[in-house]
Amino acid sequence: MTVPTGSAAQPDVPATPDFPDDPHAADTPEIPDVFDPRGYADGLPHAAYRLLRDRHPVVRQEEHEVLGWPAGPGFWAVTRHEDVVRVLKDAGTFSSHLGATQIRDPDPVDLPFIRRMMLNQDPPDHGRLRRLVSRAFTPRRVERFGTAVRERARGLLTSAVDAARTGNGVRDLVADVTDEFALLNLADLLGVPPAERGLLLDWTRRVIGYQDPDEAGPAAAGPDGRPADPRSPAMLQDMFGFARELAAHKRRHPDDDVMTVLATDDELATPELEMFFFLLTIAGNDTVRSAAPGGLLALARHPDAYRALRTGAVGAATCVEELLRWHPPVLSFRRTAVCDTEVAGQRIRAGDKVVVFHGSANYDERAFAAPHRLDLARSPNPHVSFGDGPHICLGAHLARLQLRVLYEETSGLLPALTVAERPRRLVSNFIHGFKSLPLRLVEGGRD
After folding, report:
1. Does residue 4 register a pLDDT over 70?
2. Percentage of the chain surpassing pLDDT 70?
3. Is 56 exposed, middle or buried (0-12, 13-18, 19+ CB in 10 A)?
4. Are 10 and 418 in contact (CB under 8 A)?
């Protein structure tokens, strides 16, 4: 059945432009820059992505100095869906271990430390750590987590609506709902005491938002006077110290949470436990923190789609998949070529950086019919918002659960969503996040 789940954007906010059927309509000999973090402050650069997909599916990108961060050697940008999936699945050719998974090269001194993280390992080491942490996500724990998630979503949304009624009808859903929703869900899962939970958001902002002055604050200087890498050992000591203290507490006072499982696992060394805490805190928090406001904004800009969700014409599960495709929380991931190889006819040499662009892959006309139409009933929907291959997101099922519950509770509580002011997006070429999302939740609030 075809369900009318898309609509024109609301007049106060520019719509995503329609793209012509002619793939050469944006005719230019220049290679667009999809590296600069500032290029994502207004959303996905769809025109640049399409030009790359159509004419330069694997192309060299300059890694210029920007926002105080030094220039790098450049990388190959991979933008077509088929090629992105190939790179992500082929860990034997495209390594997460050699140069880690961020575009910017880590300091060679820090690289051994960064490689301890499961995200930056190749099989079989990656598989061993993945199996260890998977033990923590038992069906009983996930079921209990889901109950708490629904109560939290309902409570945060109800509080936002009450505040809107006593104010002008508008609330920032990032500040009022989605930041707290993601943070408190993660804190429950990990077993972080209530008094310490704000630290998780502070660490996330520091690490994820390091390219954005609003999120990162004044950059700490490294030995060379340039900004210090927030993922370096020196910048993470407070987080690792907290992880060790929390693990020691869980050994003395075990509870039904993930940190208790990790802290009492004899196979997990202390440095591995620290890196797991880092990964779960940052990735576990920011995946939902970035995806949730993106999904809500899409629903607000497409009232027919929101109506279809509210009336049950489309299910929340398929809705989640389309909103993830529409607004992938992660923009890019880096791999390093292990050997000389070729992608889409482009020769790549051993040691070259290869960066996949999830936002481009999710809008590839070769994989998705009418990709710029929001279709909450889209099926199949092979988006790569959670990656693919051996490094597919470990917590994808928990992220989907949280997003599904949030959209269900939103649609049950709010008859309409309206964009009140221009949202503010994160300045980043890595995370597709929001700093604010002002939505009108009720009509006729006080001026």
Report:
1. no
2. 89
3. middle
4. yes
What's the one-letter identity of residue 314?
V
DSSP state string for 337-395: ESS-EEETTEEE-TT-EEEEEHHHHTT-TTTSSSTTS--TT-SS----TT--GGGS-TT
Residue whose pair of structure tokens reads 């003395």 in the numeric block: 252
Instruction: Tell me the C-alpha distance between 125 and 132, whole Å.
Output: 11
Which amino acid is residue 232, in one-letter code?
S
Contact residues for 288 (Cβ-Cβ < 8 A; gap 6+): 178, 181, 182, 185, 186, 329, 399, 402, 403
Q: Do 186 and 289 form a contact (C-beta atoms < 8 A)?
A: no
> Which distant-in-sequence residues (6+ apart) come within 8 Å of 387 by Cβ?
88, 330, 333, 358, 393
Using CA atoms, how far residue 226 sits from 28, 219, 229, 230, 287, in Å, is 36, 9, 9, 12, 29
Lowest mean pLDDT among 61-75, 202-216, 286-300, 357-371: 202-216
133 closest CA partner among 10, 258, 12: 258
- Is the CB of residue 147 less than 8 Å from the CB of residue 426? no
> Helix 270-301 to helix 303-311 angle, to the nearest 10 degrees?
110
pTM given for the model: 0.90
DSSP 259: H
Q: What share of the chain is helix, strand, coil (3-state, %, to 5)?
A: 45, 10, 45
